[in-house]
UniProtKB/TrEMBL annotation:
It comes from Streptomyces cinnamoneus (Streptoverticillium cinnamoneum). This is Aminoglycoside phosphotransferase. Residues 64-270 form the Aminoglycoside phosphotransferase domain. PANTHER family: AMINOGLYCOSIDE PHOSPHOTRANSFERASE DOMAIN-CONTAINING PROTEIN-RELATED, AMINOGLYCOSIDE PHOSPHOTRANSFERASE-RELATED-RELATED. It holds the Pfam family APH. Gene3D superfamilies: 3.90.1200.10, Phosphorylase Kinase, domain 1. InterPro entries: ACAD10_11_N, AGP_Transferase, Aminoglycoside_PTrfase, Kinase-like_dom_sf.
Amino acid sequence: MPVPLQRDPHRTREAITQWLADRFPAEGTPTIGALSTPDETGFSGETLLCDVKWNHQGRSLVRPLAVKVAPARHHLLPDSSWHRQVRLQELLATTDVPVARIHGSESSGELLGAPFVVMERIDGRVPGDIPSYHRSGWLTELRAADRAQVWNGGLQLMARLHRLGPDTLDLSFLDDPAHGRAYGPVGMRRQFGACMAHLEFYGVQDDPVVLRAADWLRDHRPEEPGPPRLLWGDARIGNIIYSGHTPVALLDWEMATLGAPESDLAWYLFTDRYLSEGLGLPRLPGLPGRRETVATYASLLGRPLRDFASYEVFAAFRFSLITSRVTRLMTGTGIQWPSGRTPYLRSAALLARVLDEAGEASCPG
C-alpha cells in the first residue's frame, strides 16, 4: 500500500545530511535534493528517494540514493526483522543475486525516529499493487510476449536465489530461537506454527475460513526433504525492479526465511492471482499461467515440485492473515472501503476457493 511522504522534508534532509557527513567525512560536504517516495512504497515502512551531491576538492559527484526507514507506526508482522533483513541484503550483495548495494545503516532512531539503511537507488520500474498492474500501469502497455519475459525473468532470478547452496552464506541468524525455533524445524512447519501463535495479532483467531484452512494444513504439511534453502518470503513481481522487460534487482527481505523453494513459488502465483481474480480483474494476456509456471520452475530447479498444493493453500492462508492486519491498520486511519470489500474479505474469499480446489484435487477419481 503506497504511503505518501508524511515527515517534514526540511528536517529529514537535515538529518540525512548530518548522517552522511558523519559517516563519510572524506567525501566532503553533501547536499541533498528534494525527497520523494516511490509509488510502490510499502504500507509498513518508508522509502525516501533523493539525489545527493558531494563537493570535494573542486570535484562534484552526484549519487542517487534510497533511504529505507524501519516501520515505526504500522507493523504488519508480529516479530521485528529489520536487522535481519539488512544483514541478509548485505550478504546477498556478495552473490550473483541482484540487490541494491547498502552504503551504511543506522541502528538507532534518533535521527529519523526509527532505524534506517542508505543504499544505492537502482533505476527502473516496478509493477504496481494499487492499482493492480492487471488494471493499469506499464505492464498493461506491453505486448503479450514482453509480459511473459517480465514474468519468467522474475522466476529466473528467484531460482538463482534458491540455487544458493546451504553453505554459500552463513544464514544462521535466520534460524535463531528468537526468530521462531520454538515453532518447530525450519520450513513450512515453523512458518505455520508462527502464524498459529499470532492469530490474535492478525485479528483472525475466530475466522471460520482461516480456521478451516489451518485444519487442512495440519493434515497436509509436507515433509520437505533435503536441506532448506534461502526463501525470499515476499516473492512477487511487485518486489522486482525492471529495466525494460529485464529484472535488475530483488526488493524487500522482511519475510525472508529458510525452507523449500515451493513456498516462494506458491506466493509468487497467489499474489498475482489475488491482484487479478481476487480483485475481480481479468489477468493480463501473455502472463504464463499456473501450469506453465510450475513446469518452468521445475526445470529451473532441476527437479519436480513436491506437494505443491499444500504450499498454495499455505500461501493463501498466510496472505489472508497479512491482509487482515493491513485492513485493520488502514481502517484505523479512517479509510472507507467501497461496498465493504476490504482486502481481507477479498483474500478470504480467494482462500476459500483455493481450499475447495485442493479438496477436489485430493478426492479419488
